[in-house]
Design brief:
By secondary structure, the chain is mostly helical. It is built from six helices and three strands.
Length: 233
């Protein structure tokens, strides 16, 4: 006797998977089309992009100030150590110290400007994050059902795929190959139920010989119209 129940269940599972994927696509599109949420996220991204280089600039300036300070301290140590006797060399050290102090003042000014700009950018970032949180909360409240449905569909998809693989593993290879060959040509429905004497997909009534053969299940029987495999429960 030809056993089609496993293949028919595989088909039901795959049709449910496809229907779920279509619905997930619709939900994803609906969730992504929220202009307020998109704008809030874009504003946050922009604020983050402004903060990052200012943070880097401030860190670099602090490191340069520390390096400049160390150089000045080293020059002063040489100047007052008594180890340098040459007047010209002493004058060069004094000039270096003066130059380093001038550079230190310039760096301090730049750091102050950078820190003010960073403070303003971080305030804007905080404001953008708060705004995104408010918009997200509103969006979640408004689209909560869609989000819950999306999560349920994803969980169901995982279960269905595992079930399908288990059933495919238990199906007869020759029948599975026939099913897989027909599937793309029959709009993912290679098997049709025999409902009464009619094909459940195309609705065409089968002649008595075909209907009886489908019920006996001794061989593969095809619908006389759409040529799908007929399965009589």
């Amino acid at each position: 006797m030809i056993e089609l129940e496993t293949l028919y269940r595989i088909q039901e599972i795959e049709l449910e998977i496809l229907a779920g994927l279509r619905r997930l696509k619709e939900i994803t599109a609906a969730l992504q089309e929220n202009e307020a949420l998109m704008n809030a996220q874009a504003a946050l991204d922009s604020a983050q992009q402004r903060v990052a280089p200012l943070q880097s600039q401030s860190r670099n300036l602090e490191l340069e100030i520390q390096s400049n300070r160390d150089k000045a301290r080293g020059a002063e140590d040489r100047l007052y150590s008594g180890s340098v006797k040459n007047p010209k060399e002493l004058q060069d050290i004094q000039n270096e110290i003066a130059s380093l102090k001038k550079r230190h003042s310039e760096l301090e000014d730049h750091l102050l400007e950078s820190m003010v700009a960073l403070e303003e950018a971080e305030a804007a970032l905080s404001e953008a994050q708060t705004h995104l949180n408010v918009v997200t909360a509103s969006f979640t409240a408004e689209h909560g059902q869609l989000i819950e449905e999306r999560d349920r569909l994803k969980a169901r998809d995982t279960v269905l795929r595992q079930d399908r693989e288990q059933r495919r593993a238990g199906a007869k290879p020759d029948l599975l190959k026939l099913y897989d060959d027909l599937r793309p040509r029959k709009n993912n429905q290679p098997i049709a139920l025999l409902t009464g004497s009619s094909c459940s997909v195309c609705g065409v009534e089968q002649n008595r010989i075909v209907a009886d053969a489908a019920r006996r299940r001794h061989e593969i029987v095809y619908c006389i119209s759409c040529e799908r495999i007929l399965y009589a429960r």
